[in-house]
Write a structure and sequence with these properties.
Helix content is 76%, strand content 0%. It has four helices and no strands. The protein has helices spanning 2-23, 29-43, 49-64, 71-85.
């Protein structure tokens, strides 16, 4: 049961990091919109935690390629990806 608890904690930390990026005034609007959509998908319980994490990691990889993204936002996104990668079934 500890694995499920750890997975939920990692998911919460990743969502908190993404919400922090969204709430930062200097984050470009297009990136905020993309991340908001990702957070919405992450909290839906339609799929397992690991499936939601894997889908989000894939989409975040695309988001990090945006040339308009400030480097500190990219670093925060990588932190969220790291948390999501730790989620296993």
């Amino acid at each position: 049961m500890a694995d499920e608890t750890q997975n939920k904690q990692a998911m919460k930390e990743a969502i908190d990091t993404l919400n922090l990026i969204i709430s930062t005034n200097s984050t470009p609007k297009t990136i905020k919109k993309s991340i908001t959509d990702l957070v919405t998908d992450l909290v839906k319980e339609e799929y397992s935690l690991s499936v939601r994490a894997a889908n989000t990691i894939s989409l975040l990889d695309d988001v990090t390629q945006d040339p308009n993204m400030p480097s500190y936002v990219r670093t925060q996104l990588w932190q969220a990806v790291s948390k999501l990668e730790s989620i296993r079934e």
